Amino acid sequence: MSQYTVLIVEDDQQASYTLEQAVNQHPQFTVCAAAETAEETRQCLAQNPDLILLDITLPDGDGMTLLREIRQQNIAASVIMTTAERESSTVAQAIQFGVNDYLVKPLRLSRVHQALNDFVAFQNKLEESERIDQLQIDDLMRKNKAQPRTRKTPKGIDATTLATMIEHIKLRSTPFSAQEIGDELDLSRITARRYLEYLEEQGMVSMSLNYNTGGRPKQLYHIVAQA
Fold first, then answer.
1. Is the CATH code 2.70.180.10 the one for domain 159-223?
2. Taking the model in full, what pTM does it have?
3. Neighbours of 216 (CB within 10 A)
4. Which residues carry this modification: 4-aspartylphosphate (predicted)?
């Protein structure tokens, strides 16, 4: 099983956390470096990452300029853009520079997982043989179609418990932690967090980090869509 190194270029703490979480959860990826500015990114390129998760808006420049430099310097790294930019001209420019994917903020953990899996699948197909035929090329060039959503819950997520949690957190008007929800529903903190992470993947809740704790940042959740 091939292993890939990732450079995360992101100055937003929440987005950076989501990207790092997705990479760390995938057995074939390792974060080799993280940068918050264009200048830091240029220095990190010396580590020859296999994949770059690249934000467009940076404090001292923009990711599109960096992407252009990466291509002009013939750096072999693949690039996935992460941005709040939705203008069609920006998307078109990113595609012209050969990005593997384009992720729109706010980032969803499940969508980042999909992008990483698509990258692995693409690499696997390239490594299958030295020469490939037209059908294989067509398959490589064709963007993977989104899978239809299903109501079936994954392993470890009980539908009844999930429904109870959704109804419970609908009543919350302020951010809440996994520990708080666990205590209120008689669940362990780990179990409550597993359900909240699932709801985050489904776009029903959003997670932010509270740094005013005097110690490690605290994960807080809030409703972002009607469950």
1. no
2. 0.64
3. 8
4. 55
Does the pLDDT of residue 169 top 70, yes or no?
A: yes
Give the CA dihedral 97, 9, 86, 123, nearest 10 degrees: 50
Every domain of the chain and the residues it spans: 4-141, 159-223
For the domain 4-141, what is the CATH code? 3.40.50.2300
Mean pLDDT of 110-122: 89
The pLDDT, as a whole number, for residue 144 is: 43
Phi, psi of 146 (to 5 degrees): -65, 140
Q: Could you read off the pLDDT of 122-156 as tens digits, one per residue?
A: 888 888 777 777 777 777 776 544 344 445 678 88
